[in-house]
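question for whoever is on the cluster today: can someone run the full assembly for these? three chains, 347 residues total. i dont have access anymore since they changed the login thing
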Amino acid sequence: MNFWHVLSILFLSGGLFFFATATLGLLRFPDFYTRLHATGKGDTLAVFLCLIGLAFYAGFSLSCLKIIFIAVFMFLAQPTATHAISRAAMKSGVTPWTKEDATK
Amino acid sequence: MIDFLYGIGFGLCFLVLVVLYRGIFGPGVYNRIAAVSAVGTKTLIILLIMGFIYNRVDMFIDISMVYALLNFVGTLAAAKYLEMEK
Amino acid sequence: MIHNSTDVIIKTVARIFIPFIQLYALYVIMHGHYSPGGGFQGGVILGASLILLLITHGERVAMQRISENWITILFSLGVLIYAGIGTLCLFFGGNFLDYGVLAPLLHVSPAAARSLGILGVEIGVGIAVMSVMVSIFYNIARSGPYRNKGTTARRES
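^ ran it for u. tokens below:
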């Protein structure tokens, strides 16, 4: 259990925490756009932290470099996919939730 | 360390089952697309953790990279196809 | 008819990623004998990159890049490479796809001739799979006015 393993455990735990809160947001939020905020942002950060943690565990080798490539790709691609879903929903007329809906 | 990776893997599998609630009962189709994208993201990490447990990392990294690519292209295609005029 | 996407973000990100996806597909084809991959998987990833171009930039731009004539030529070329290497082995006295007998033609040992033969066959399969996927998608994209009136998609209330 050297220094890199301890760092890897820290990053993986942080990643699991953000996954759990993003899932809780996906279940409990009242509207589609707020749920999309939760899963788009929370999942992206959680995947990035988990992949950096696994890259620390793999040691200094070719596998570490490939995992960093996957992390950079997910960091760029996941927000674009979220943007595409949100734009398609906006064009189809899904209306946002306002405060009047809460008092009904 | 391997036991810790087992714990993370089981936690992520439980989270996938929780997200499937939104995939089944989400009102409308866009909630379901968001749920499928979230399931794909968690599956990517589960595949990599399996690679570390079986001690064959080189094989599972290529598989998980392909899965990330196909998840991205699939979400874009679904969002474009299921878009309806008002 | 698939229209152009009017959004700057999606078009720019797709334009950044398409060459890298194609480079990764070439890596998957070449390393088929050692890690998961080979001809079919690499061909699917190449096809996915061209489908990404089609759904983000629209049909007109994609057809300017690769027209239907080129797709027809490419899938015939892929099958020709595969069957051609097999028949070339027949001409030199071996069985069909028996790459060892090609060794005097390439001036290498029989083991290296087998490795090169497998690589050539995988490249042919990859080209054929890519062009068939793109051709099927072009065929689906041309069909009709039903695009915006989905019967299964319901609006959220």
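summary bc i know u wont read the tokens: Chain B has one domain: 2-81. The mean pLDDT of chain B is 92.
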